Amino acid sequence: xxxxxxxxxxxxxxxxxxxxxxxxxxxxxxxxxxxxxxxxxxxxxxxxxxxxxxxxxxxxxxxxxxxxxxxxxxxxxxxxxxxxxxxxxxxxxxxxxxxxxxx
Length: 103
Ligand code: SF4
Ligand code: F3S
What we know:
With 103 residues, this protein is of the alpha+beta class. Helices cover 14% and strands 25% of the residues. The chain has helices at 6-9, 50-54, 88-92, and strands at 12-16, 19-22, 33-34, 38-41, 61-64, 73-76, 98-100.
């Protein structure tokens, strides 16, 4: 699953789709962790979709990731500032790709 200490163990290498990108990245195969308050490890996400279905405030949206081995779309936490820390997404993701850190 996603490293809950990613902010310590990784470096922010940029921003894409309105959220931080935590490296290392080497597209298209290695895409890093996306977002900070709501973080999705794009290298683990396999596009299950439960997070998009269940988030009560629609934090996530699909983005295209052609050429990635796990899936060619990913759940981007575009509206992470809307998060109400309900933890539903963390609970429903089958591969533990999501970390939510109630500040
Ligand atoms: Fe949405 Fe709740 Fe996950 Fe926040 S913790 S992104 S509100 S499902
Ligand atoms: Fe991906 Fe998990 Fe959501 S696999 S689409 S982060 S439920």
